[in-house]
Amino acid sequence: MDEKERYDTGISVRRAVLGDAWVDRAQARLSDFNRDFQDLITRYAWGEIWNRPGLDRKTRACMVLSTCIALGRWEEFRLHVQAAFNNGLTQDELKEVLLQSAIYAGVPAANTAVHHAEEVIAQLQHTR
Fold it and tell me: What is the separation of C-alpha 18 from the centre of its chain, rounded to a whole number of angstroms?
């Protein structure tokens, strides 16, 4: 795959996972400073990693959620809670990710994640 194909694939996967509105907002915020970074993550995170055949998107979503919890990356966590639902994760499965994370990332991190997840779920229910 050449760089243009990787980018095109990446933007398509990014839209499928995060939603058009999120990607459109990110594209609208492009600047000389962040353009190279956005291009990098579109090509490699979304065009390569999220597009690999070894794991389905639902599994990848669980992994991203767990990693964000462990690292305390709450803005990314909130984004990827919504993305996980776009990838077919259910609320019960999200609950399992949170419980698993309590053991491996720590109860305080999982507790914070629960609160963020509840807020995202409430927002999603309000907008539907």
Answer: 7
